[in-house]
# Entry
Amino acid sequence: MWEDAMKTINRRSAIALGVTAAAMTPLFTLVASAKVKKYGPKEGKEIAPGVRVVEVSTGNSDIPAYKSIAIADVVFQPGAHAPQMVMDNDMVCTIASGAFTIKKADKEFKLKEGDMYTCAKGKTDEATNTSKEVGVHRIAVLIPA
# Structure
């Protein structure tokens, strides 16, 4: 009986691990692909001096609260600053290159390449590229259902 219970636990653990790995694969792909593209100084739409948004792709979402996910790269020239803005949607942000200081209403923190953070709809956020290189935020914008 004990052996049967262990087989069930091991089988369940293996299934849970497989599901978790499958769910995380797109996230790892997103982070890895963010490092590839180098943008010119005029690509995308300027939202602040030295800060441009480049639309990357859009896809459907299987998360019930969201109908789709839009991926965009926010490209910051060295020292560029995106002023405080209210977020229109929930977002997951990955620092694809550079180093940044992020300021929210209740906290300020520093991030480097490979770090992630989130932005909540209705909350404020501002960012400054503190590195001497072009910095890129890869943003997954979650579009509500």
Remarks:
- Helices lie at 2-34.
